[in-house]
Amino acid sequence: MASESTLRFGAQTDEVTSLLRIVNMVRDGHASTRPEIGRITGLGRGVVTQRVDQAIEMGYLEDGAFGPSSGGRAPRTLRFRADRGRIITCALGGLHIHVGVSMLEGDVLEDSHAEWDISRGPAETLDRAHAMIDELLAKTPDVPVWGISVGIPGPVDFESGRPVAPPIMPGWNGFDIRRRFEEKYDAPVWVDNDVNLLALNERSRRGDEHTDLIYCKVGSGIGAGLVSHGRIHRGANGAAGDIGHVRVASSEAACRCGKVGCLEAVAGGWALVRDAELAIAEGATGLLAQRYRDGEPMTPTLIARSAENGDALAISLVQGCARVVGESIAALVNMFNPGAIVIGGAVVSAGEVFLAEVRQRVYELSLPLATRDLSIVQSQNDRREPLRGGAEMVREQLFDATFPRWFADGHPTIDAVQGTP
Prior knowledge:
The chain has helices spanning about 5-10, 15-30, 35-40, 45-55, 120-135, 175-185, 195-205, 265, 270-280, 285-295, 300-310, 310-335, 350-365, 370, 385-400, 405, 415; strands at about 60-65, 75-80, 85-90, 95-105, 110-115, 145-150, 155, 160-165, 190-195, 215-220, 220-230, 230, 340-345, 375-380. It has about 425 residues and is of the alpha/beta class. It has three domains: about 5-80, Winged helix-like DNA-binding domain superfamily/Winged helix DNA-binding domain (Arc Repressor Mutant, subunit A, Orthogonal Bundle), CATH 1.10.10; about 85-200 and about 385-415, Nucleotidyltransferase, domain 5; about 205-380, ATPase, nucleotide binding domain (Nucleotidyltransferase, domain 5). The protein has a five-stranded mixed beta sheet with strand order 5-4-3-6-9, with helices on both faces. A hairpin with a 4-residue loop joins strand 7 (about 155) and strand 8 (about 160-165).
């Protein structure tokens, strides 16, 4: 058996490597018995027994019920100890806070949602998020927090966990979100763009480890999460997929980022609200106009629902949005060649009114080979999507990216995950 110092400092001996692999095989469901582990890894029965016993002793695995017999004695199954730690997920939107708590298998046990304007700044926003999280922690098993994910609606430097000039988040530029959560919960923290979390949830939902897909969110803003061969593609600085600020030809609309002609300024939810209010002020009639004049706030969701119900103004706005979004997605399809485009966000709740226009533009403007096996679908529209995606990111970072650094301790620590001796 490897010495404690060898394990603690993560030297990649054959023994350490095989132990890590066995724990992850059981965790991922690729093997559930000792004989299965032996068949997949090629390790001898004695070695498998030794590694499994060590993983049980360290608290990662436990014996379960007996599995089906193939003729001899029935093998005992193995289970990953998902009950040893909790994962906190926090999804910040332009107008809401959504938090959840999961165990290590990633299923959301408890969640809470509140309306909130993110422009109130980081101090107030994170204080509110922490209060919501504390209420959920009190309702879930009292075990340590192993990891935290925070999704924000803006560009993020993934290495530092700091927002970078987020257009709809005044006061957040360069703010150390990671530190605020680390100090509060004494656990490793990862901060990412919210659409990347949605893309991770979609990958997990499909159960395809090698999928190539794009998740495009059309809400107040517009962004895309890129999954390449099962991995999120963030780019050199975390800016990959930020299509909301790609220039739309011939547009001079002012964007919240300070530039003009951005896709978001033409087709984002806030742009649709702007255009709807202007059209109504100029005399437009119909269901959407009547609801607005009756005092209902103009929102992207109201416009989408009105389009779904046949309102002419809403349909015109949604189809115009879909055309320019489809053109930008077509450029991504030609460059990235995904197998699936999944579109979510408030505007997409218009359903086929939106999707049909996007499909037409994508197939019209993309190469035939790039669209030969392409599907373009609406997301599940489940409000827990970003929470499950956040838990998936934490699990990936803990067990795929940083596991060798901390597994000898039996649980992750901030220093170990960050590679600090």
